[in-house]
Structure formats: structure tokens, C-alpha cells
Amino acid sequence: MKCNYSFKRGGMKAKSLGKAVLVGAVMFGSIVGAGFASGKEVWFYFAQFGWVCFPMIILAGVLLFALGYIFLEFGKKYGIKSVQEMNSKLFGRFGTVAEIIFIFSNFILLSAMFAGANSLFDIVISQDFYRFASVITAIIAVIISWLGFEKMVKVNLIVVPAMVLIIAVAFVFCLSTSSGITIPMTSGIESITSLVFCVLYVCSNLFFAGFIFARLGGQHSKKINLAGSAIGATFMVLCLIGMVISIYLNPYSSMSDMPLVYIASSASDIFGIITLIVVWIGIATTAVSLVYTISAWLERYTHSFKICSIVVCIICLIISGLGFGAIVNYCYPVLGMFGVIFMVRMVYISYKAKKRKLAKQG
To answer: pTM for this structure?
Structure first.
């Protein structure tokens, strides 16, 4: 895809800016899954550590910007079209092992999306319908993934404005109704732990969404990828800060599987329903990315993307029976360690490629 990029009075043309926003929206939309959109992940990785979480959020934004851009450019440089290609470039003869770990982790995360859908509807509606929320989410994810990569990417444009608006309204509600803010004190050990959790958070999210980023990066210029990474990271930082403060203003929300939904439901039934819809869209967009990633990998061996997507969703619906809270608390940190390994390798490969390029120029 040819990207026209030029400067006009120091800024991007509208068309190029739109493409940069699209890249940023895909980055943000791929990260906004059940954990982020519900607030559960925000509490687990950041808010529980008190004051120190705010500089950690800024650090997370910087890491997302830098590593996200590296992923985009990696996909552009090598023309990544499949999970196999990406892992082969990163790990060489150990690519198959990396693929298995990568796909296993994506299965777990997709299961968390389906479990999150059930928890979401259970909190707001509290009727038997919530038991079918995961199935409906799976069906929608399958259908959208069948439409192809381009259509799937554009779906993410729905998430950013809706999620930012919901978090902003929840933030204002908490400010107007709270008698004060309660921020946990941070010990020295907790400060170190929060740094580890910050790195795990960014690496795990990029690990899961890395293939989507690599595919996307090959379609745009270097400057658009750079601007898109900045936009995506900025959205994430603003939303994280807003959600953390909202949780501190409403401390009881931290005990819920879905803190943001708990806060919205406390405001009013209508706001609770609206938040349910927006959070569910966030879950669905991440589920679509995961279904596409796993099915694209399996397609190489089965030659049927549609059948793969159906089988993948059935397996993950079964795993989702473990429950949303259990998957986030026990599985996410382990998957985050896999993410760190992938990110270190990605940075190393990119550094070597840059060094060879400079050597040739010299």
C-alpha cells in the first residue's frame, strides 16, 4: 500500500494523519481487552501499588511507544505475513518452539476474553443471559475475522473514542461523588515489584498483539508508524491514569472483577449499560485479533481458516470456564514472562539489523 506523507506548515497532511491515527487505534484496540477495559488488569498491574503506579504508567507508555514502533518496523522490513515468518525471523531454528509458546499464550488470552464477557454481563444484568455472553462474543469474533485483515483492523477505530469517553465520564462521576481519594502507601519492595509488573504488562500485551502490529507495520511508512506508536501509547497512558484515579476515588471497586463497570453501575443503570456495551466492544475487538492470529497460524497446517477459527473458539470457550479473575491473577504474569523473552529477542534482532545497515553505509 502506497503511503503519501508530506509536511504542510510542519504537520502531516490529513490523509497521512488519518493513517497514523488508524495505527494508534489498532495498537490501543488490540490492548483493550477484558482486563484493561474492565479495570481488573489496571488494578492488578498498577493501582494496587499506590503512588508509585503513576510513574510506572508513564514508563509503560514509553515502552509501548518504543517497542510498538520496533514491532511495526520489524514487520515492514521483513514483510511479515504469518506467525511462522515472524517467529522464524526472531528465533531461527527455535522458531517452532516459539510458535507453540506464542499460540498457547494466545489461546489463554482468548479464553480470558470469553470469561471476561461472562463476568461483564453477570455484573450488570445478573440474569441467565450472561452465560451466553462468551458464546455471542465468539460468534462475532469468528465472523469479523472471516472478513479479512483490513476489515478487522478498521473495527478497532470504534474502541478508542468510546473507551476514552467512558473512562472520562467515570472519572468525573468519581470526582463529584467521592468524599476523598484513598491511595495506598508504597514500600520499597512494592516499588521494585511495581517496576517488574509494569514491564510484564507491556511485554505481555505486545507479545499477544505483536503479529497484528507486524502485519500492520508493513502497510505504512516509517513516519506514520512512528506517529501511530506515539498516538497509541498516549491513549493508553491517559486511560490508565484516568482508571487508576477512578479506582482510588471508589476503593470498593477494586474488589470487583470489573472495577470500571462497578463504578459505572454505581453512577446509574443507564451509564452501567452503556459502559457494558463499550467494554464488551473492547473485549470483542481483542478477541477478533486473537482469533485471527491463531487461525492464521493453524491455516498453514489445515488449509481452512474458517474451520480453524471455529475450533479455536470452541476450545477457548471450554478453557474460559476457569473464570476471568483466576486467569488474570494466575496466568497473565506467566504469559508476561514469555512476553519479556520475545521483546528482548525483538530488540536484539532489530539492533543487529540497524548495526549492519550502518556498517554498509559507512
So the answer is: 0.77
Query: Which of 9-23, 120-134, 152-166, 329-343 ranks highest by mean pLDDT?
Result: 329-343
23 closest CA partner among 7, 39, 42, 3 = 3
The whole-angstrom separation of Cα 47 and Cα 298 is: 37
CA-to-CA separations, 258 to 41, 115, 200, 236, 263, in angstroms, rounded: 9, 12, 21, 18, 9
What SS3 class is residue 323?
A: coil
- The rounded distance, in Å, linking the Cα atoms of 46 and 31 is 15
Q: Are 42 and 256 in contact (CB under 8 A)?
A: no
Q: Do 264 and 271 meet the contact criterion of CB atoms below 8 Å apart?
A: yes
Which tens digits make up the pLDDT trace of 223-278?
999 999 999 899 889 889 988 988 888 888 887 777 887 888 777 778 877 777 87
**Spatial CA neighbour of 177 closest among 52, 57, 271:** 271
| Cβ within 8 Å of residue 99, ≥6 positions away | 83, 84, 87, 297
Q: Are 29 and 216 in contact (CB under 8 A)?
A: no
Distance CA 120, CA 130 (A): 8
Q: Residue 221: helix, strand or coil by DSSP?
A: coil
CA distance linking residue 176 with residue 172, whole number of Å: 6
C-alpha closest to that of 217 among 24, 85, 10: 24
- Select from 251, 240, 244 the least CA-distant residue to 179: 251
Distance from C-alpha of 285 to C-alpha of 282, rounded to nearest angstrom: 5
Q: Which of 338, 276, 275 is nearest to 109 (CA)?
A: 338
Q: Which residue is listed with cell 514469555?
A: 338
Q: Running DSSP on this structure, what letter comes out for residue 49?
A: G
Cell for 317? Answer: 470457550
Q: Cβ-count burial of 79 within 10 angstroms (0-12 exposed, 13-18 middle, 19+ buried)? A: exposed
Strands (E), 206-271: none
Q: Which of 154, 136, 160, 145 is nearest to 290 (CA)?
A: 145
Tell me the β-bridge partners of 196.
Answer: none
Q: Which domains does the chain have, with CATH numbers?
A: 19-350 (1.20.1740.10)
Question: What is the distance between the alpha carbons of residues 45 and 48, in angstroms, rounded to a whole number?
Answer: 7
Mean pLDDT for 313-336 is 84
